[in-house]
Amino acid sequence: MNIITIQDDSRGMRARIAPQFGFNLFELTLSMDDGGGRHGDWNLLWAADRFADGGQRPSGSGIPILFPFPGRLQGGLFHWNNQTWNLPENDGRGNAIHGFVLDRAWRIVDQSRHSVTGTFHAHRDEPQLAKLWPSDFRITATYSIAGCTLTALYRFDNPGDLPLPFGFGIHPYFRLPLAPPPSAADSCVVRLPVNSEWELQSLIATGNSSPADPRLVQGIRFGDLALDNVFGGLDFAAGRCRCTVDEPASGRQIWIDFGEDFRELVVYNPPHREALCIEPYTCVPGAAHLRKRDSDLGWRSLPPGCAVEMQVRIGARTQ
Asked: CA–CA distance from 13 to each of 80, 119, 253, 314 (Å)?
């Protein structure tokens, strides 16, 4: 399999990307010194064993990219401009989930030691998608590393003749605990700058919300969390929203921040509890169905010939 590696030698951060599996960045490591001159790798992301060999669930490892819709479309049906589009029901519950790009092969268009750019053009790379979505689309992602920070720049182009309806999200799996044993995942402290929580029915938003648990802002132990929840009312400082996971015993921290294009946050811990997913979304899951009732749920439409860019950063800190 073709695996792309990018790195910053000055701080020892390295990423590995699988273009053939949705351009998934499935490994992000930082070289560590234990104080005795011995080095090891701190892997910030969780991925299933042998993920890059194939055969694993595409949304279950690394950083899956969710486009042109994140979350579920109820019943696999999408209604747009007086037409109904029938999508594959692939969530095990009779719904379509997470768009079309996370399990398809992307093309590499640029690469250097520190960065790589991949793209997926729907009607060119998989013409059958013309039967599943109202407009053509092209998504381009650039991953670059500087110091202890990974920067992800996502660009969405509408090369078609019709408006492109879309929502976007990413689904990073942050590995817990942050340090080797005797560190324990349950002792990690999660902080999320959220103020509201969306009501879900069968994991799809109803359009109703309520205040979020204030402990999420103050910091709550991972051991006290069991989440597959959608939060809103995000707090931004200087145009960025930052979420953190700290491990007090080791002094390690993982953080993710993003701009104001992202208005919702899905937080999920897989049943194996070896990871925590902190997922910025541009819309409420299910917003495509709810848009007529409430226009402020983040569902977007990109005019023909137009493009939009969004940025996410992921980093690590040690004492």
From this structure: 44, 24, 15, 12
Distance, first Cα to last Cα, the chain: 37
pLDDT, the chain, mean: 94
d(CA 312, CA 294) in angstroms, rounded, equals 27
Nearest in space to 59 (alpha carbons), one of 47, 76, 69: 47
**Which domains, and CATH codes, for the chain?**
4-317 (2.70.98.10)
What are the φ/ψ torsions at residue 68 (nearest 5 degrees)?
A: -90, 15
The 3-state secondary structure of the chain reads CCCEEEEECCCCEEEEEEHHHCCEEEEEEEEEECCCCCEEEEECECCCCCHHHCCCCCCCCCCCEEECCCCEEHHHEEEECCEEEECCCCCCCCCEECECCCCCCCEEEEECCCEEEEEEEHHHHCHHHHHCCCCCCEEEEEEEEECCEEEEEEEEECCCCCCEEECCEECCEEECCCCCCCCCHHHCEEECCCCEEEEEECCEEEEEEEECCCHHHHCEEHHHCCCEEEEECCCCECCEEEEEEEECCCCEEEEEEECCCCCEEEEECCCCCCEEEEEEECCCCCHHHHCCCCCCCCCEEECCCCEEEEEEEEEEECC
Model pTM above 0.70: yes
pLDDT at 293: 56
The CA-based angle 190-97-48, given to 5 degrees, is 55
Asked whether 186 and 276 are in contact (CB, 8 A), the reply is no
Residues comprising the chain, all counted: 319
User: For residue 288, what pLDDT band results from cuts at 50, 70 and 90?
Assistant: confident
Phi first, then psi: give them for residue 295, nearest 5 degrees: -80, 0
